[in-house]
Amino acid sequence: MSASDPIPLSRIPNFDPRAVPARAVDGHLPPVPMARLTPEALRQRFLAPPAWQPEVRAEPRFVQRKPAQAAVLVPLVMWPEPTLLLTQRTAQLRNHSGQIAFPGGRVDAMDADVADAALREAEEEVGLARDRVEVLGTLPTYTTGTAFVVTPVVALVRPGFTLRPNPVEVADAFEVPLAFLLDPSHHRRHAHEFEGVMREWFSMPWTDATRGGTERFIWGATAGMLRNFYRFMAA
Question: Which cofactor does it need (predicted)?
Fold first, then answer.
């Protein structure tokens, strides 16, 4: 990192994204109707995508290295009221430690494509078996400040799976109601300036009643990709 490179938010002294006030909440935008969240409706949306544009494509770069291809699985668990399976990364990981994330990681040479990479990473991180997963398609890439060019791979997941989180990478795995995440009244906008560089991001805090009221603070790249998913589903 050169002297002119922006410092990543996670390394700014005393930075806590929870403490940065929201500039706005997008309650003026409509939520995605529940009728669009059924398995068949989701399949049809990816078979015949609407005209739309992603809202968030890239973060300010704060590393000077060659971009690396990565893939994440966006696992939609098909309960009667569908949920999204997310993970909380362990504190010792080099990139995005402690943050809430989709299962995923770098695309390896042995992977057939980005979908194969996302499925492999989900198996390795949380033990999600491929035979429970139906890939629907992909969303546009999202480039992180750490120079990962991430392809979100959206998939349906049949309930009844047993997770086996890898303790090296995953501190916890949990599900969030999909309708909550696709309701922009829960999308908060933040901005923080440090050393002349303004950073902006979304957050979507969710209170996990199944874990004693634990706050799941979804923000950064994960929230940005979810915002794009909202735009895709709302178009």
Answer: Mg(2+); Mn(2+)
